[in-house]
Amino acid sequence: MPARIGDKIATLIGAAKGEVVVCDSTSVNLYKAVSGALSLNPSRKKIISEAGNFPTDLYILDGISRFAASNPTIEIQPRENIIEAIDTDTAVVVLTHVHYVSGEIFPMQEITRKAHEMGALIVWDLSHSVGAAHTDLNEAQADFAVGCGYKHLNGGPGAPAFLFAAQRHHLGLQQPLSGWFSHKNPFEFVDDYLPADGIAKMLTGTTGVLGASALEASLDVMLETKTTERLAKTSKLSTIFQELVEDHCSGFDLTLASPALASERGAHISYRHPHAYPIMQNLIKRGVIGDFRSPDYIRLGFSPLFMSFENLFDAVQILAEILTTKSYLSSEFKTQNAVT
Predict the structure, then answer these.
(1) Do the bridges between strand 121-125 and strand 162-165 make them parallel or antiparallel, or are there none, so unpaired?
(2) CA nearest to 135, candidates 159, 156, 158, 152
(3) Residue 249: its pLDDT value, please?
(4) Which pLDDT does position 198 carry in this prediction?
(5) 59 catalytically annotated
(6) Can you give 13-70 as a three-state secondary structure string?
(7) Set 150, 241, 277, 328: catalytic member
C-alpha cells in the first residue's frame, strides 16, 4: 500500500515509479528526509530555511539541530535572501514550495540549481503544492520532498503524508527512524536491522490502512482527470474569486496578502483585515469554510474537483454582507478556538 499509493502521487509531482512512499505525517517525513540528506552530505552541517516557513518545518529542524549526532546548525533567512544565502558551507536547503499563508510559489528549478551548484541538497515541502500547483520534481532535479494527503489531495482528516527521495540517492541513503517496514525482510522478525532496497528504506512503521485507503480513493478520482485541466480550473476559480472580492468588498479594509496573479500563487488566497478572526468565524457559521492565520489573515482555498463557480458568487455575497453589516463584531465570534 505505501508503494502503490506513492506511485499514484508520483504522477502528480513529476516523480518516477519507486520514488514516493505514503507513510507517517509530514513532520515525521521531514525529519527523515532532512536526516537522510545530512547523511549524504556528512562534511557539512548548515541547514538553510525560510523565516515564516510553516512552523512544523522549523520546529523539526530545531529538533534535528539538538539531537542529531552531527550537530547541524540552522540558518533562517527571509525569502528574498534565500538564493544568496546558499553557499559552500550549506548541507541542506529546506523550503516550502507554496507558502502556507500567501500562496506565493518559490522558483523550484532556480533554487534547486543554486543548491546543487554549491554542493548542497534540497528538501521541498509540497503540502500546499501537490494537486494545487505545477510541480515537477525530477525536471527540477530535486533531492527530497514531503507533503500531506489531506489538503488538495482530499484525503480527509488523518490522511497519511508522503515522502519522495530521488532514485539517484537510494543506494547510500540512511534515515534515523528505521522501523520494521524499512527492513529488507520485515516478516523474518530478526533482531538485526538490514535496510530495504530503494524508497522502502524511508518507511518506518505500519501505514494507517484506513486513512491511506481514503486517500487512495481520492487519488483515483483525481487521476481520472487531466492535471492541466485541474490546474486551469483552479487558476480560474482563484482569479474570479479575487475579481468578485474587488467588485463587492472594496472599502472594508481587506488587503490582498497573496500575489496578485493566480499564476504566481497556489490554490489558496489570503487577505488581511484588522478583524480577521471574527470575520472568519462569522463566515464559517454562514457556511463559507476557510481559516484564520495569525495575526490577521483570512485564507480561502479552491478545489477544482468539487467547487463550482456558483460557490464563488455565494461566498463573496456572504462576505460582503458580513462586512457591510459588521455582524462579525458579535461577541459569539470573538472567543478564539484552539483550532483556527
Answers:
(1) unpaired
(2) 152
(3) 97
(4) 96
(5) no
(6) HCCCCCCEEECCCHHHHHHHHHHHHHHHCCCCCEEEEECCCCHHHHHHHHHHHHHCCC
(7) 150
Catalytic residue among 8, 44, 114, 151: 151
Q: Long-range pairs for 60-68 at CB < 8 Å and ≥24 separation? A: 60/27, 60/30, 60/31, 60/34, 61/34, 61/94, 63/31, 64/31, 64/34, 64/35, 64/38, 68/35, 68/38
Is residue 226 among the annotated active site residues?
Answer: no
Walk across the sheet containing 297-301 and list its strands: 255-256, 268-272, 297-301, 291-293
Mean pLDDT of residues grouped by 10 in the chain (340 residues)?
A: 98 98 98 97 96 96 93 96 97 98 97 98 98 97 97 93 98 95 95 96 95 97 96 97 97 96 97 98 97 96 96 98 97 89
Residue 277 bears catalytic tag: no
Q: Is 144 left (phi over 0), alpha (psi -120 to 50) or beta?
A: beta
Which pLDDT does position 52 carry in this prediction? 95
Answer yes or no: 314 catalytic: no
Candidates 32, 299, 302, 328; catalytic one = 299
**Can you give the pLDDT at residue 35?**
97
Distance of CA 244 to the CA centre of its chain: 27
Question: Does residue 44 contact residue 68 with C-beta atoms inside 8 Å?
Answer: no
**Cis status of the peptide bond prior to 195, with omega within 30 of 0:** no
Of residues 54, 271, 277, 297, which has the active-site annotation?
A: 54
Active-site residue identified among 7, 24, 57, 125: 125
Q: 272, 324, 316: which is closest to 298 by C-alpha?
A: 272
C-alpha grid cell, residue 12: 502528480
* Confidence (pTM): 0.96
The answer to whether 236 is a known catalytic residue is: no
Rounded Cα distance between 175 and 146, Å, is 14
- Provide the edge-to-edge strand list for the sheet that holds 121-125: 20-22, 162-165, 144-147, 121-125, 90-96, 46-50, 73-77
